[in-house]
Amino acid sequence: MVEPRHRPIGKTDQELSFAHKVWIVVGILALSVCLILILRVAFNVLLMVFAGSLIAVFFHGFADMIQRLTHWKRAPCVIISVLGTFALLGTLFWFMGNTIQHQVASLSDEFPKVVKAAQSKLQQTTWGAKIVEKASSYDSTKLMTTAQSFFSTSFGVLGDLYIILFLGIFFTSAPSLYKNGIIKLVPPPAKAQAHAVMDRLSFVLKGWMKGMLLAMCLIATLTFTGLSIIGIPMALTLALLAGLLNFIPNFGPLMAMVPAVLLGFLDSTNTAIIVAVMYILIQTLESNIITPMVQKKMIDLPPALTIISQVLMGTLSGVLGILLATPILAVVIVLIDELYVKRQTEDTQIELE
Q: Which stretches are transmembrane (predicted)?
C-alpha cells in the first residue's frame, strides 16, 4: 500500500505567490522613486536639451526659407542659416551695442531715483498712496529671497546659454542621427506612428518659433516708436526688453511695462498713464492679430493651461522653466493628441463599424 505524500513543512503555493507579487510591487515602486529622483536632479539638464532642440528648430526653419528661395541643396542652406544668424546678431550688437550698454548702465544707476520719484507722484493721490503703503509694508528681505530662488538656475545663466548654444549646433548638424536614435527605442509596430509624431512636433515648434519671432520684432518696433514719440529716455533698451520679454506669455509684457511706466513718472503722472496705455494697446494688438496667426501654425493653447505650466515650470526650474513653459506645453498636448486622443477616436470608430 502506497503511503500518501506529505507536503513539505513551510509556506503554501498561494503564500509564495503572494510574497512574489509583493516583492515585484516593491521593486517597481523603488525603481519609480529612483527614476523620479534622477529626473528631479537632472530636470534642468533635460530643459537645456529641449532648449537646444528649439535652437535647432530655428536654424532648420531658417534653412527651409533659404531653400525655398534659392532651391539649393540642404547642407549649404543650413550652413548659411547658422552663419547668417550669428552674422546678423553680431552686426546688431556692433551698431547698437554701445547705445544699449550706456542705456542699461544709466537705467541701473537711475532706477532708485525713478522708484522714489514714482512713489512721490503716487502719494499725491489717494489710490496711489494706498499702493505705496501696500508695497512698503511688504517684507523686502522676503521679496529678494523669493526673486533669487525664482530666477536661479543650476549652472548659472551664462553656463546654461553656452551649453544650450552648442547643443543646438550639434542637433542642427545631424538631426537625423538623434531623431533615428529616438525612433529606435520604439517597438517596430509603432515606428511609423513615431515618425508621424516627430514630424508633427517639428511642424508645430517651427510654426510657434516663426510666430513668436514675428511678434517679438513687431512689439519691439512699435514700442520703440511709441516711446520715442512720447519722449521717454532709453527707448531702445526698453523696446528690446519688451520684445524679448514677449517670449514669456502673460507675465512678460507686464514685466516689460514696469520700468517704462516708472520712467514716465519722472515727467508726470499723465506721462506714466500714457505709457501704460500704449503698452496695453500694443499687447492687445499682439493678442488679437499675432497670436491667432501663431495658433494657425501650431495648436490652440488654453490660457489657463499656459499660466499653470508657467507657474509650475518656474517653481521647478526658475527662469529657464518659465521661458520654455509654452513650447513644452505645446509638445505635451501634441503627444496626448497623437498617442491617446486619436487612438481613442479610432477605437470608437472601429466599434461603431
A: 21-39, 45-63, 75-96, 150-171, 212-245, 303-336
